[in-house]
Amino acid sequence: MSAMSHDQDVTRQFDDVAAGYENSAVHAEGPDLALFRHAAERLRPGHALDVGCGPGHVALAVAPFCAHVQAVDASPAMLAIAAERARKAGHSHMDIREASATRLPFADAVMDLATCRFSAHHWRDLAAGIREIGRVLRPGAHFILTDSVAPDDPLADTHLQAIEVLRDATHVRNYTVSAWMALLAAHGLAPLRTDHFRIRLMFADWVARAKTPPARIDAIKELLSNAPAEARSRLGVEEDGSFHLDVLTVQCEKRGY
Questions:
Q1: Taking a C-beta distance cutoff of 8 angstroms, is the pair 26, 244 a contact?
Q2: Full strand arrangement of the beta sheet holding 189-201
Q3: What is each CA distance from 210 to 2, 79, 126, in whole angstroms?
Q4: Residue-wise pLDDT tens for the chain (257 aa)?
């Protein structure tokens, strides 16, 4: 039996778990959603793009303030949920289509706003995805990103990456804040504002949402229970395996390369 490519694995995984992300408190709520909404209200973009839209939380949040919204994702099941939610909300100006972040089906410099939330840590080639977002943004347009970030401490970082990939094999990496800042700058995206917060991931919900197999759940528990005190403290590990994850929201402006 031949192995699937990473892109194929991402599609399979998120088609299988799409419904869980529509109602997940981690994804359907959060202080960063208000930042997306307020930015769109201030900017009033003509053409907005949500990359890795999932069930449409960000696209729906910004839609009332945009003339047209494109929402793309690699998972047809996620897109079906987003399309139905857009229909119920009366957002006929939302166009929802299947696409990879690294191959956006849009011309250069056509978007006034791009958004991406809790998707980039699944991209096999992060730089290619950010390059594509930079390509489709017009000069002076804005990009708003939210993603989980890695601790600067290598010990805690190693344990976080291990439990993330055990929980969901499509996870690639949580990047440090400094790595994000360097990558954005390298692709002409100048940070204007950064916001930081932590989310508590309740262990049972976290693994159920990804439909993690029992053997992998046991491995995560074993890894967390035997992690060094420094790593447990940095990640805020609790007795039941729940832990805390750092999150970055950064608002950027597209500058010339």
A1: no
A2: 94-98, 68-73, 47-51, 111-117, 137-149, 243-254, 189-201
A3: 23, 17, 22
A4: 457 787 776 676 665 655 666 666 677 678 899 999 999 999 999 999 999 999 999 999 999 999 999 999 999 999 999 999 999 999 999 999 999 999 999 999 999 999 999 999 999 999 999 999 999 999 999 999 999 999 999 999 999 999 999 999 999 999 999 999 999 999 999 999 999 999 999 999 999 999 999 999 999 999 999 999 999 999 999 999 999 999 999 999 999 75
Dist CA 207 CA 35 (whole Å): 28
CA atoms lying within 13 Å on the CB side of residue 119: 28
- What is the distance between the alpha carbons of residues 200 and 202, in angstroms, rounded to a whole number? 6
By the 8 A CB rule, do 39 and 64 touch? Answer: no
**d(Cα 7, Cα 154) in Å, to the nearest integer?**
28
Tell me which residue has tokens 């897109």. 79
Which stretches of the chain are DSSP H helices?
Answer: 6-22, 25-28, 31-43, 57-62, 76-89, 126-136, 154-167, 177-186, 203-210, 214-225, 229-235
User: Is 201 in contact with 137 (CB distance < 8 Å)?
Assistant: no
pTM over 0.90: yes
Name all domains of the chain by residue range, CATH numbers in brackets.
Answer: 6-150+172-199+246-254 (3.40.50.150)
C-beta separation of 148 from 118 below 8 A: yes
Number of H helices, E strands in the chain: 11, 7
Give the separation between CA 143 and CA 252, rounded to whole angstroms: 5
Sequence-separated (6 or more) residues with CB below 8 Å from residue 11: 74, 75, 76
How many residues belong to the chain?
257
